[in-house]
Amino acid sequence: MRLFKKGSSGSSNNTKARANSSPNVNVKSKGSGGGTVSADGKSTVFRVPIPDSVQPGQEFQVYAGNRIVRVKCPPNSQPGQFLQITVPIDPNESSNNNSKPNAGAANKSLPPDSPNVCPVEDRDGGPPAYMVTIPEGIRGGSQFPVTIQGQQLMVTCPPNAAPGTKVRIVPPPPPPDDVESSVGMSGNPDSKRKSMADEETQLFEVQVPQGVKPGQSFALLAAGVRVLVTCPLNAGPGQRIRFKLPKALTTKRKPRSEAVEIKLSYDKDGWTRTIRVSDMKFQWVRMDDNGDIDTNTRFDAEKSAYVRKLTFQPGGDERVRDGVMTLVPASDAFVDSRVKAYNGEVLVTYSEIADAQVKGFEEKAVWFQEKCQKLRVEWSEGHMRINVRRNFLLEDSVDAVMSLNRKDLRKVWRFEFIGEMGIDAGGLTREWFELVTQEIFDPDMGLWMSSETNQMCMQINPASKFVCDDYLVYYRFLGRVMGKALFEMQLVNGHMVQYIYKHLLGWPITFKDIATIDEEYHQNLKQLKDLHENGEDLEMLCLDFSTTQEFMGAKEEVDLVPGGSNIEVTNDNFPEYLEACLRYRMMDRVKDQLTELLLGFFDVIPEPLLTVFDFQEIELLMCGLPKIDMDDWREHTEYSGEYEHVNGDYPTCHWFWEVVDEFDQEMKARLLQFVTGTSGVPARGFGVLQGNDGNIRKFTIHGVHVGVCLYPRAHTCFNRIDLPMYETKDELREKLKLAVTMVATGFDIE
Fold first, then answer.
1. Alpha carbons 605 and 611: distance in angstroms, whole number
2. Which tens digits make up the pLDDT trace of 351-403?
3. Do 485 and 491 form a contact (C-beta atoms < 8 A)?
4. In the prediction, which pLDDT does 107 show?
5. Quick one: which of 232, 175, 238 has its CA closest to 210?
6. pLDDT for 199-255, tens place per residue?
7. What range(s) does the HECT domain occupy (predicted)?
8. How far apart are CA 572 and CA 127, in angstroms?
């Protein structure tokens, strides 16, 4: 994709700006014009400042008149110094170097104002206003793009408006037409650079790709950052549109985490989080084989993904917010990229979040704690003392925590166990978090149950509604406790199934995630999928859009969609049947409980702060890095497949343990998550590791030929890793790290 900076003709020498270009800067030229013309009249001399982030030998882009040129930083130069460059005269420029005609020519290549935009005559001398007609298909609360004065803007439809209604808007002032004209108007060549530094934004022009329709979004790399741009309603393929990005966001950051480096090195097709240009919010997109956005809307078991959408609403009690949670296509889910205080002050910016995303796990944890400190209510403004009875710990704790408002949740808590001597200097707080989470995760409580695929992971009990009338209060309480534990860097005494961590983070849920909670059910659906792909008549199976669920020993038929028991599964609607199964197992079955859990969690933690973590890291942050005894791990490992007859006495097996020994604690924990589904280690060690049937299933290394699978493959229900018989230790190290790391991206590496 071709990307142009403002004023670029896109055709002259060295004026193409690559999609992953280096930082762009304004040119400070000799004199007040566009540069000093040489004696022969064939070139112009400019003085160019070296940007802060540029190293010797690295290329960067600069304005030279109305064009963009690439400059290579000399070996002995450094940021802040000026270079003198000579640029051939642009034949399209006028002989007197007056930039305004060229600016006008450039503007002619931009799309005109949208047809549904009409300027409003302002007799008071205020900023220009426009009347915008709401397009067809737009409803209250949804957004639509318009182009005004060459700027792409997103307009939010008012709640009481409808298609055809006109709304009045006052857009932000457009940027100057070009660098040199702004210099001429101000008389100060530094004024434009100073203005851009104040705004901390950078203007880009992009050519709308072929095949993109008006109103459709497309992704591109701008200065190395993947962004999502919406094509204006009156623009089309080949036309150029402009957008701005924060400079801090486009500054290239060197990954400080081995896991991040691996993900970036092997970036490939799959779901990825981008920044949306229209409002600077994070949004998920899926790239196809050509690097374009996958616009397929029908369910595909290999590609489709869904993200929970939580819409907050005022509650009947001012201390408790209500909310509605739905499962939407991943491409329709977005999250703010800034964190604001209760008074509206911006505490964390998108550039800070972008910088944190490339940190290592330990650095991320420190960064997260620092941001939580900003959100903490000062001791002098109030703090909470919570008194509980040890024999009635859960009941007293629920009453205390649920009586607090959201601001109270960010105050300092101090605990007292009634009838016991002791001052809480941190030890009682730590004990309270451990005991209360241990009790509420206890399967005997009836709120949670062990996962069918991993006995160490807890999943929400669908039958919890029969435990007590106010069962949802306990999930809201636990959400608040988990959020407060994360806020205070305390640990939660319980590991949850993987998809709940994904819901906490707003990460995509895919068809493969069903296997993490019910491997047998997932295999049955895969068999149906194979029959469908082979052209078998599914109507012969007499299936409908319903499922049977067992509650407290009684079986109940549940519709997957409204009236599902009356809808027969056919070859035509089979994709919709798979989608309905995924929605039910991943959300609808425990939707009420899950909604309360997340509402409680976000009473404490702002969602944008979580965007720096993946679902493996959030488990490690909440439950802590496990203490792994490598000798115990080796001793209680079994071997099968090609390694069974030698009982692991094979070069590949020896290399495996040597590589694992080299791993740091984070990578060892990720390996455990990859193979067993959780970072938790049984209290009695690896010798009592359980499988999905509740029986002992020791960690198993299964030998396969490289032709069977190129990368290590995990079977979490059996605690087994399929390890190809690699020829070198280096190859094993590379493939193992890649497999363990990429599982957190949702990419399929087979």
1. 12
2. 888 888 888 888 899 999 999 998 998 888 888 999 999 999 999 999 999 99
3. yes
4. 42
5. 238
6. 467 788 888 888 888 888 887 777 667 788 888 888 888 888 888 877 766 665 555
7. 405-750
8. 55
AA identity, residue 115:
P
**Cα separation, 621 vs 131, whole angstroms:** 50
pLDDT at 461: 94
CB atoms under 10 Å from CB of 244, counted, come to 19
State the DSSP code for 511.
G
Q: Which of 148, 117, 110 is nearest to 132 (CA)?
A: 117
Out of 231, 581, 653, 717, pick the active-site residue. Answer: 717
Residue 157 falls in the annotated catalytic set: no
Q: Which residue has the tokens 């403004």?
A: 381
Is the distance from CB of 326 to CB of 580 less than 8 angstroms? Answer: no
Q: Which stretch of DSSP H or E encloses residue 652?
A: helix 651-662
pLDDT tens figures, 340-354: 877 778 888 888 888
* Angstrom distance (rounded) from CA 591 to CA 577: 19
C-alpha 720/C-alpha 714 separation (Å) is 6
The H-or-E segment that residue 167 falls in is strand 166-169
Closest to 699 (Cα-Cα) out of 724, 725, 674: 674
User: In the predicted model, what is the mean pLDDT of residues 169-188?
Assistant: 45
Residue 194: pLDDT band with limits 50, 70, 90 = very low
What is the token pair recorded at 94? 């006028």
pLDDT the model gives residue 177: 39
Who has greater pLDDT, 28 or 715? 715
User: Among 204-218, 262-276, 543-557, which is the least confidently predicted range?
Assistant: 262-276
Q: Calculate ∠ Cα 89-93-94, nearest 5°.
A: 110
Asked whether the predicted pLDDT for residue 101 surpasses 90, the reply is: no
Query: Which of 41-45, 145-149, 553-557, 712-716 is predicted with the least confidence, judged by mean pLDDT?
Result: 41-45
What contacts 24+ positions apart, CB below 8 Å, involve 720-727?
720/640, 720/675, 721/674, 721/675, 722/641, 723/643, 723/652, 723/653, 723/656, 724/652, 725/642, 725/650, 725/652, 726/652, 726/655
Give me the domains of the chain, ranges plus CATH numbers. Answer: 29-88 (no CATH), 198-295 (no CATH), 311-332+340-621 (3.90.1750.10), 625-745 (3.30.2410.10)
Spatial CA neighbour of 271 closest among 320, 332, 323, 209: 332
Please state, in angstroms and rounded to a whole number, the distance separating the CA atoms of residues 596 and 312: 11
Of 240, 232, 234, 233, residue with least CA distance to 209: 240
Q: Are 57 and 36 in contact (CB under 8 A)?
A: no
